[in-house]
Here is the input.
Amino acid sequence: MSTLPPPDGGAAKNSTVDRALQVLEAFLTDDESLALADLTRVVPLDASVIHRILATLVRRQFLRQDPVTKRYGVGLRTWEIGQRYLAASPLAELAQEAVDAVVRRHSYTTGYVATLDGDQMVVLATVRGPGPVNIVIDPGTRMPAALTATGRAMLAYLPAERLQRLRARLAAQREGRPGSRRPEDLTAELREIRERGYVENRGEYFPGIGTVAMCVRGSDAGPAMAISVDFPIAIETEHLWGDLPDQLREAVVALGRVVPAASL
Here is the structure.
């Protein structure tokens, strides 16, 4: 199971609503379903409390339970609320259309629209390009921002005070990774990204998979979201390293014209 960001503090953190949300947030992982035992390992609540919350969430259709395995998964109501979020985010819809216009030109590509949530990158939309082979990451997937091209594209434009608050968690993400550098190198790396305007990942996160990513900045000049394209690293796709930066830049410039009128 993926590690979730720690919940915020506050006077209401032990309320019934907060406890229910802690259980619901445990499903923001790569696992399609979770058992009660899985939840007791990641949610800091008594097993009996978790079980009662699960029963309520299943009854209200925010979760579903497999009658055979007794494992829990995301329910219809949660999916509906997620769709409402996207419907209320015109910029996300426009970004998805912009990514589609890029990937349809290239076989074997997959485009993504993502946003930043703390020290994690969250996929909002996935757009498959033409061709028999595509790398597909499902919407809703979370990945460490410091390790992904898409995440670093947004971190590069994060206000200094917000970046400072995340620095320890970002450094922890990079520890032990092949070719990882010192935590203090992240500042220089993000500065280079701002100067270049885009990020390349040549198989450092997923071996054999290339990524080109670019940040879409909001009206406050901070990161609103990011768009990116993944593709298998091969002779047939070598031209994408040269083509995609310019094509993504055109998309970002076009989106920049509507950012002040669009809201997340």
